[in-house]
Amino acid sequence: MAETELQLLKNELQEKGPQSVGAEFMNKQQENQILKLKEAVVKLRDINATDRMKMSEMARELEQVEHDLSDVRRINSKLNQQVDQYELQIGELHEQIDAALGAEEMVEKLTEKNLSLEEKVRELQEVVDDLEKLQDLNDELQDTARETEQDLREEVEAANAKVEKYIKRLYSYSDQPKKKRDHIHLPMIEVNCYCTHVTRQLGFALRPIRGIYIYIYIYIYI
């Protein structure tokens, strides 16, 4: 295969001359590099779609946590009101017991009712304690979700800035043909490596950079 390509190159050198063949060879090299750059941009676009899905899912989860926390607070308020009512009833029963010490039967009935109410109060208090623990857990989950969202936003913004820097470097080569031939492979490799790094390390994608397609269009066709 290599011998065939070498023979073709020799034939072209004989037919067109070294300068013409050299120019065609450089054009092919540039076309291959531009193709690889296009593939890198497609990877960035796919990564960005994944990022939008993750951010949307996180927003839905945070909304659900806030909704659950509101329900817990409402239930907790109702249970506290019931506890207050039961405690008031217990106080009234104690007063009745004190006033009816001479009536043993009345005392026994009131005592049984008092014990029953106290058991209900204990049960309700246990429920209230469990709900308060659940409320604390929901508060922690909400704080964690917000911190995670903020961290993701900061990491995505930093990644966007770095990729935009690479694109601007490629754009700056458009009016410098020799410099573009000598150095275009470096930012192209950096963009590909950075796409792979973001996908593997962060597990989410970059947001679209404003003007990224304009940069690529100018770079390729001007």
From TrEMBL:
Q: Coiled-coil regions in this chain?
A: 27-169
Record key words, sorted:
Coiled coil
Asked if the Swiss-Prot or TrEMBL record annotates the protein with the keyword Coiled coil, the reply is yes
This protein is called: Dynactin subunit 1-like
Native species of this protein? Tropilaelaps mercedesae
